[in-house]
Write a structure and sequence with these properties.
The protein is mainly beta. It has a four-stranded antiparallel beta sheet. A four-stranded mixed beta sheet has the order 11-12-13-14. Strands 1-4-5 form a three-stranded antiparallel beta sheet, with no helix packed on it. It has three helices and 19 strands. Strand 13 and strand 14 form a beta hairpin.
């Protein structure tokens, strides 16, 4: 087993491969011990105007091949423009915008550069996304309508890369389980979006979901019994009798009045909606 020269000691000249493997240690890995998780570190959002795709400034981690080759960090300090092929006369299609690296020493391409490219899909009645080149990092899919069918729609496909020790985000738990093959106790990740978004911590044996954000019903007006009226019906809304449920906790707010009720008399004044009542009622 070869051992790379360390980064950095005076008098030692590291090869490009050794530099890649050293820097890769600062980025979180998936299954591979030497190559980093491919994805976007920052920025790189895609927008479209007419038939020109604009990729915003940012940084991408590109891992063309897993194993000893390490990973490449590609920075874009200014916006890059990429042309979209002309629309088909009859059918829509799906294009894919991606970043990639050409390294002749590794891929025999005869080139040594990073590039932003578009792979053009095949127009069809039910179009499918075309295949990406090996090692490409997808940034977006472009839903390109037939000629005269409207504007190109951008679907964000950026996959997050994070620094070592960071908390990565995955679309699903299935994607997480493919990416993190040997999780360690205490390792964290986030899955899904919106109301389904969840934070997970690995126990050393299984992934454990942390307590999600509790559901919030918002304020709901409470119907009053005959003869009772709210102190106010307009602004502020807090004058009305209302309830609100956050998680399993119910809050009540407001005031009511009745000119005919005798002091110290027990009387029902309102009907709290189902779902907001104590469990023993």
């Amino acid at each position: 087993m070869a051992v790379d020269d360390p980064w950095a000691i005076d008098g030692l000249a590291l090869s490009a491969l050794e530099w890649r493997r050293a820097i890769t240690g600062l980025i979180q890995h998936d299954a591979d011990a030497v190559s980093a998780r491919a994805g976007v570190l920052s920025g790189c959002g895609v927008t479209v105007a007419s038939l020109t795709a604009t990729v915003g400034a940012g940084q991408v981690v590109v891992t063309p091949t897993a194993g000893s080759n390490g990973s490449y960090i590609v920075g874009m300090t200014s916006t890059a423009l990429t042309a979209i092929a002309a629309q088909d006369a009859t059918f829509a299609r799906i294009d894919r915008v991606y970043a990639r690296v050409y390294d002749n020493a590794v891929d025999g391409s005869g080139q040594a550069k990073a590039a932003l490219e578009i792979v053009t899909g095949t127009p069809a009645a039910s179009p499918a996304a075309p295949a990406l080149p090996s090692g490409a990092v997808e940034l977006a899919q472009l839903q390109v309508p037939q000629s005269g069918g409207g504007s190109v729609v951008v679907v964000d496909k950026r996959r997050q890369a994070v620094a070592a020790g960071g908390v990565p985000w995955f679309v699903t738990t299935a994607e997480r389980d493919v990416a993190i093959v040997a999780p360690k106790a205490g390792q964290m990740c986030v899955t899904n979006t919106g109301a389904a978004q969840a934070l997970w911590v690995h126990s050393g044996t299984v992934w454990v979901q942390m307590q999600p954000k509790p559901a919030d019903s918002g304020w709901v007006d409470v119907p009053l019994r005959a003869g009772f009226v709210a102190l106010g019906t307009g602004s502020p809304a807090s004058q009305r009798l209302r309830v609100r449920k956050i998680g399993n906790v119910v809050y009540m707010q407001g005031g009511i009045t009745n000119a005919t009720v005798v002091a110290s008399t027990t009387v029902a004044v309102a009907d709290v909606p189902a779902g907001y009542r104590p469990v023993d009622v």
